Automatic annotation (TrEMBL):
Residues 132-334 form the Cytidylate kinase domain. InterPro entries: Cytidylate_kinase_dom, P-loop_NTPase. The keyword Iron-sulfur does not apply. The keyword Phosphoprotein does not apply. It comes from the Bacteria. It catalyses: dCMP + ATP = dCDP + ADP; CMP + ATP = CDP + ADP. This is (d)CMP kinase. GO terms for biological process: nucleobase-containing compound metabolic process. One of its GO terms (molecular function) is dCMP kinase activity. Its EC number is 2.7.4.25. Keywords: ATP-binding, Kinase, Nucleotide-binding, Transferase. The lineage of its organism: Bacteria, Bacillati, Actinomycetota, Actinomycetes, Kitasatosporales.
Length: 336
């Protein structure tokens, strides 16, 4: 299949050794050099600090890391960001430090301003703004979010797992929608995968994709009270971030109607089905469930087309695109 990743999956270890999903970031080693060259050039043009670029390379194996640093050094030597320092590891965010934002985590607070973050060496001097990624299941939304978040040093919020957490925990425990924020904590940090905690304890992926979640997810997604409670929780997080990437099914119309970029991502149904099959190849207990575009997907797509100016929207069919090509296309579509 042409759209299948050719380079194989790699585990990417983030600075605090949090491991991103193996399937999240896939590179074709043959094309690594040009991939990084193009990506780095574009990011450098936009003034991203080298330390964030360097963090992309932290988990790569040696040849790929070398290729990345060669590209980075070349771009920094010749490009607009040549005066910026090259550091190879960003300071690891601490649980209550300025890189952490949660909803109910003790000590968590709003992001500092970009200027304060730049002064602390934590963030790019350039705001990417808020970006949304909507689309049907297995279109590659979460993968794109992780790529953008990791490459740009931005926090990423995946809204789907909140629906799953409600289905796995709140519904079986009889928690009403109005109490959700007392029980569920969402922690997002620049460049790192998000954490969901139920009453302070990390929720395992096996719970999010387990039979209880599967049995209740349809009810949660179809219940306007739950949708409102979940949306409020996510809106609270979005309000704390000037730059963030948010993934879901209706993020553009309900959460980020004035985003820097609203992306609608899709791919043909058989391709999405194959992607999910590959993704769950080592999890035979997880159902491979891929739908045609739902009414909600179509409504979101239509909303973006109707309400967002051309510079702020991207409708991308990824059927024949590799992950790195999707990431590259989106990075090049960020206005500014
Ligand atoms: N462009 C692509 N080509 C091939 N595989 C992809 C592509 N984008 C994502 N994938 C793979 O497809 C699977 C589903 O992607 P995911 O990001 O979880 O989709 P979504 O969040 O839209 O449900 C993952 O295993 C991912 O690695
Ligand atoms: N913004 C959102 C995010 C997810 N949902 C729904 C859609 C799915 O049924 C569940 C789980 O989301 P998830 O992102 O895991 O979806 P898939 O497994 O890709 O179908 O939540 C939603 O209705 N609105």
């Amino acid at each position: 299949m042409t759209s299948a990743p050719r380079g194989g999956s790699r585990i990417v270890r983030t600075p605090d050794d949090h491991t991103l999903p193996t399937e999240a970031i896939t590179f074709d080693p043959q094309e690594t050099h040009t991939l990084f060259g193009a990506l780095v050039a574009d990011l450098a043009r936009k003034g991203v600090l080298a330390l964030h670029l360097a963090s992309v390379a932290d988990g790569l194996d040696a040849p790929m890391r070398d290729a990345f640093h060669r590209d980075l050094a070349r771009v920094l030597a010749t490009g607009p960001a040549r005066d910026l320092p090259v550091e190879h590891r960003p300071p690891a965010p601490t649980p209550d430090g300025p890189g952490t934002v949660g909803t109910a985590l003790p000590g968590a607070g709003p992001s500092p301003t970009p200027a304060a973050r730049t002064a602390a060496g934590l963030a790019p001097p350039w705001d990417f703004g808020r970006m949304s990624i909507d689309g049907p299941n297995a279109a590659g939304k979460t993968t794109l979010m992780l790529g953008l978040a990791h490459a740009l040093g931005m926090p990423g919020l995946d809204t789907g797992p909140t629906y799953r957490a409600v289905a796995a925990h709140a519904i079986p425990q009889g928690i009403p929608p109005t109490d959700l924020a007392h029980h569920l904590t969402i922690v997002i940090r620049p460049g790192l995968a998000q954490r969901l905690l139920w009453r302070g304890i990390d929720i395992r992926d096996d719970d999010l994709f387990g039979p209880r979640a599967g049995a209740n997810i349809g009810h949660v997604a179809g219940d306007p009270y739950w949708r409102e409670a979940i949306r409020d929780l996510h809106a609270h997080i979005c309000a704390q971030h000037r730059d963030i990437v948010v993934v879901g099914r209706d993020v553009a119309p309900t959460l980020l109607s004035d985003a820097t970029l609203n992306v609608f991502l899709t791919a043909d149904l058989p391709v999405r089905h194959t992607r999910r099959e590959l993704q769950w190849a080592h999890h035979p207990e997880r159902p491979v469930h891929v739908d045609a575009l739902t009414e909600r997907d179509l409504a979101t797509r239509a909303w973006i087309a109707e309400h967002r100016p051309q510079a702020h929207r991207l409708d991308l069919d990824t059927t024949t695109l590799r992950i790195d090509q999707v990431l590259d296309t989106v990075v090049h579509s960020i206005p500014g």
